Amino acid sequence: MSQPNRRKKNTKEVVAPDEGPELFEKVVHINRCAKVVKGGRRFSFAALVVVGDQEGNVGFGYGKAQMVPDAIRKGTDKAKKAMGPVSISGDTIPHPILGTYDGGKVLLRPARPGTGIIAGGGVRAVLEAAGIKNVLSKSLGSNNQLSVVTATLNGLSRLRTAEQISNIRGEEVQGPSFTRISSEPQPVLAETVEPTS
Known about the structure:
Elements: E1 24-37, E2 40-52, E3 57-65, H1 68-81, E4 84-85, E5 97-101, E6 104-110, E7 117-118, H2 121-130, E8 135-139, H3 145-157, H4 162-169
Parallel strand pairs: 7-8
Antiparallel strand pairs: 1-2, 2-3, 3-4, 5-6, 6-8
Helix pairs in contact: 2-3
C-alpha cells in the first residue's frame, strides 16, 4: 500500500532565504522557573531576547516555554514584532537621557568617536542592536534584566535629534559638534599669529 505523503530519504528540504535585512539577535537572560507538583518539580524557561537591524530599529521580547530553544524562538518572534525606531545622531545619541521603567533606571550620555559602547549586560545588547557605536551609560536602579532592558528602550524612544527639535520650534537648534552628521570633511584652519612690535 503506497503512502503519497511520505517523503523519500534522499530528498533535501530547501529553505527560502529571508526577504528582510539581516537582524542582530542577542539572548540577554534565560530564567529557569520550577513549579512543585505532586510528582516532583516541573521546570520551565523564560528567555529575554533583544533584536535590532543596527540602523536605528530595536525591540525586545520575553518568551516562555518548557524548553530553552522554544523560549528563545518565542522571545525572538515577539522582539521582531515589537521593533521600533530610535533617534541616532551619527554613531551616538543626540543628548543625555535617563530611561526609567519599574525599578530600572539607565542613564545614557553621548560620547565622542572612538569611545565605544561603555555599557554592560542588557544595556549593551540594546545599544548594539540599535546600531549605536559610541555611548556612555550607567545603571542606577534595579539589576533585574527585564527592567534594565525596558528602561534602556524607554530612554532611547524619548530621544530627539536637533533637526526634529528645530522643526518643532521653528528655529535652528544645534547639538554638540560630534553628534552632527557631516557629508563633507571640515577644513582645518591654522591659527594666525600676529607679529609683536
